[in-house]
Amino acid sequence: TFCFPDRAPLPRNMIENSMFEEEPDVVDLAKDPRIHPLESDEIEYEPRSSRLLVRGLGEHDLDEDEEDYESSARLLGMSFMNRSSSLRNSASSYGRSSDGSCALPSVRTLCLGAFVMGIIVSVVMVIYFLPKCTFAKGGCHKENQTMEQVYPIATDGRVFPWAGVRLPSSVTPLHYELVLHPNLITMNFSGFVQMTITVNQDTNKIVLHSSGLKIEGAAITLAARNHLVQVLEYPTHNQIAVLVPETLVKGQNCVLMINYTASLSDSYSGFYKSSYKTKTGETRWLAATQFEPVAARTAFPCFDEPDFKATFLIKINREKHHKALSNMPKNVSTPIENGLVQDEFCVSVKMSTYLVAFIVGELQNISKDANGTLVSVYAVPEKQDQIQYALEATVKLLEFYEKYFKINYPLQKLDLVAVPDFQAGAMENWGLITFTETTLLYDNETSSLLDKQIVTIVIAHELAHQWFGNLVTMKWWNDLWLNEGFATFMEYTSIAKTFPDLQASEDDDKFLYTRLKAMAKDSLNSSHPISAKVETSEQVEEMFDSISYEKGASLLLMLKTLLSEDVFQKGTIDYLKTYSYGNTKSDDLWESMNKIKDKKLDVKELMKTWTHQKGCPLVTVTNKGKQIQLRQERYLRSFSSGSSTSDTRQGAHYYLDPFCMSLWILIEKKFVRISTFYSQLDTIEVADEVVWIKFNLNMNGYYIVDYGEDGWAKLINLLKTNHTILSEKDRAGLINNIFALASLGRVTLKQALDLVQYLVTENCTAPVVEALSQLDSIIKMVEKRELLNLAKAMKDFIYSILQRGLKLHLFTEEISPKEITGINALLGLMNIYSVQVCFVPFLQLDSTVLRTFLFGSLPTDLMKTVFSVGALTSDGWKFLLDMYTRASSATEKMKILEALASTYDVRKLIWLMQESLQENSIKTQDLPYIIITASKNLGPHLCAWNFVQENWEKLVQKFHLGSFTIQNIITKTTSHFSTRNRLREVQSFFDSLKDKGSQLRIVQEAIETIQLNIQWMDRNLGTLQEWLRNRTGLS
């Protein structure tokens, strides 16, 4: 039984009121976070709380703290003079006498003044005639004299011999032998790692990564002799330095051995603990890993960068009743002391540290052979009956990838494991892919068709990584898109060939929504190039966003359409075969494409304009008789008094954009091929005068099109009279583009609203879902300004144009995945309104689905929406909470939890969030879903935002600063704020965090979004009210 406090009135600070706001503070959005990679000749400084030791006179100023100067001076054998000391002269001032006349200075004063002036003149002359370098920061040096760096301080007070965030390249690991013993009672683990290392440059140190590990001892083997070595630790960079007794010489190999202990992590990264309950209510524990991007260092000392590939021999000491898994097949199991068993796994292929994985716990599996590879799916014993579909899908997809890439999967086995506590969604560890339960398990009774689609997509994505990311890996995280963009692209390509009935291919709506999502983020000044400079852990974490995933996939689709499917596939195969077991950068992919295609097009020159610049193009089309004039600029939603679309900080963005002008366009009913568009301005001649024109067929191109006032008028008329002449993706694209242009002020909101009225005759899903996405964003801003009558008028309008399609699809015997997506989007937007105007009219329908609904069995595809409606009542909420505690299916529990979080009762919502944060009856991994769901509703949205502020440190401790989860929490809780008071509140909160959040790019995005919302409301609120008033009689 769960008790709640007595009902209390909603606090006034939970309601947003913008009637008496002050003018906004000036905010400069042009300032991106400073990202300066540390070059080899640069010096890196520590926070003010750290002390610096100096070796040699560096070229950079020291910290102004006098203690730092003093310690530095003592090391150099210099005398120290206090900079704060000053001359204490008894100055004789010139004053007035009592009668008001000026008193003359004494002779003594005149002499003293002359003496001081003489000293000053002498000093000036000395400075003038000395060499200019004398007083430079570095002083005068011989030409061959090198400058020494400023080094940080290790934890024991000694000098740490490396200042860079990135590791030095003086040594490279060749092989790791790792022995681990996780204790699932004490929740600690002990480890021993033995690394075979080759020396690339003469050095007297080995610098590598370690984080949160207690180093018990270390030794190095040189010339067959073991030497104990000292280990210095520098936690700020997660680095340790091993000081070797003699200089390591280039070409030499050595063996480094380290013993250590640590605790299993309480978060979801590194080597962490996870729990689940048995059917009898008993809690069981297991240990699992999540190392991407920078957490392998928390499980064993290592060279934790993608370019340091090596082989691994892993041994796990475990209890007899546990099962251990790792990347490679098990080689042998041996009983050892204390009743433990040691599982030794085969030596791995050459791979990066972030792909290493191991799991220890009670797991059960089913297996199947796929072309010589043993495929197994694991889950906790209570969910053994939910893994069959994943096994079948994996085998089918694995066979497709082997044929498509013409490279067999290189390992003997492939394990897929559903981990009870897992935040990443899924992780492509080579040979041991880990998943959250909702993305791998499928329950035939409670899982929906959309659940099956999600499971299949995620498996397809992770299997693609076995080639893109594992076999061939990016050199550094700046090119993460080579992993994630390709995996995202291939998930759609593979499903089109293997599971066409799931409607999740590149030709279906889901990939379209992916492209539109990426362009929305990319339109912000806070966006980043797809290949961006990153160095710190937080910067690396932030690369896991829709730019790396969705934009990366979108660019690959654009390139494939340009080159042809055959050329693209052959270029991909060449890339994988050329760089197998190696590391690459973006240019390597383009070079492989250049080998295959004709010589007229330089793919490398073409694509660098897309990967090295942020944003997407805006192409303006002007039609004059037989001429079509084109202008290209960056599509930028800038916060300003005007509607500028150029990035003033970096100059004009000219995109060499052959795709947008290299394929077919639609002129009236004719498909016409036009020449490639490389410049900012161009003119196309056509045979006949043009009535209307549609660019970017099927939205395959990554750009926005503005047709001008006359062009839009013609297209709006076309949609109202004969919309099927355009494909459904083209219709969705027009909706997206016109609302995007309305946000710039390039078209009016009235034009955008006039266009979507054609939806009254629309039967397809893509245009409906896109229109709902655009209108929902407006409704959320209006509601959170407490303009509830206006919000209701908008919902009335939406229902009036979409009710025909809803009635047509809601209660049919078979509903396709696309139709389910559209129905859920509409009912989710309408929420409580759905009960009044959507469900009641259907109670009279005679359909099989309706009858099962009335007798208590919900159609699984609509379960989440119906649960959300039921949770709006107190009795319904309590019923669902009880249902949640009894449910065994992870997908069913998630649907119920999202419904519970949809409540407008803030006391219930606060209880949910606290219960999840403390990991009582609700897992902490589900807390982000609760916060994000609550953020959608008026009242609860401020409750969620307040919760984030009050529990920020706990959130970043659990989910890590910069992670995708933290990014999502920030954007979802703030994205619909549209008042200056909220803007100041958000800015003030993140400014107060300093290095605990204020530096994140996602914080800039959140602030920029609020500013754009304010601008949108200032510009369009009156238009919206007038338009709805004229249409519905809104008062």
UniProtKB/TrEMBL annotation:
Gene responsible for this protein: LNPEP
Statement: the UniProt record of this protein carries the keyword Hydrolase? yes
Organism, by scientific name, is Latimeria chalumnae
Give the EC number: 3.4.11.3
* UniProt protein name: Leucyl-cystinyl aminopeptidase
**Membrane topology qualifier:** Single-pass type II membrane protein
Q: What class of enzyme is it?
A: hydrolase
What this protein catalyses is: Release of an N-terminal amino acid, Cys-|-Xaa-, in which the half-cystine residue is involved in a disulfide loop, notably in oxytocin or vasopressin. Hydrolysis rates on a range of aminoacyl arylamides exceed that for the cystinyl derivative, however
Tell me the compartments it is located in: Cell membrane
Q: Which residues form the ERAP1-like C-terminal domain?
A: 692-1011
Site description Transition state stabilizer, residues in chain: 549
Oligomer status and interactors = Homodimer. Binds tankyrases 1 and 2.
Recorded family membership: Belongs to the peptidase M1 family.
The Aminopeptidase N-like N-terminal domain is annotated at 173-355
* Cellular component GO terms, alphabetical: cytoplasmic vesicle; extracellular space; plasma membrane
